[in-house]
Amino acid sequence: MKSLEELRQLRDKVEKEMKMRDESNRPEIIIGMGTCGIAAGAREILQAVLAELEKRDVDAKVTQTGCIGMCEREPLLDVKMPGKDRITYGNLKLNDVKRIITEHVINENIVQELAIARMDN
Predict the structure, then answer these.
(1) Is the omega angle on the peptide bond into residue 27 within 30 degrees of 0, that is, cis?
(2) Distances (CA, A) of 14 to 1, 10, 25, 40
(3) Can you give the residue ranges of every domain in the chain?
(4) Residue range 48-80, pLDDT digits in tens
(5) CATH fold for the domain made of 23-119
């Protein structure tokens, strides 16, 4: 560092990079992968989600969780958009994934007929 201005520029650059890495600025998709979910087809749902995100070049965090007690509604998929309520979708079929990614993750419109729960932000 040769000047205070150089230090400020470095600080600004690092702050910008940290904001880009901040996961709260991107959608999160959570797949129920307990034994009940896997038996109901959650692995295939997870693969379809990853493929659809890649196909559409969507930057989203995809995570897995265990059983949350709604086994009769498996497979389950939650969408958490930045600053919005977390929406749980259930009784999913593979063709539902494309619709959820397109309508909810990309266009931020909840797919009401597939949604089974909402957790307030």
Answers:
(1) no
(2) 15, 6, 17, 44
(3) 23-119
(4) 999 999 999 999 999 999 988 899 999 999 999
(5) Glutaredoxin (3.40.30)
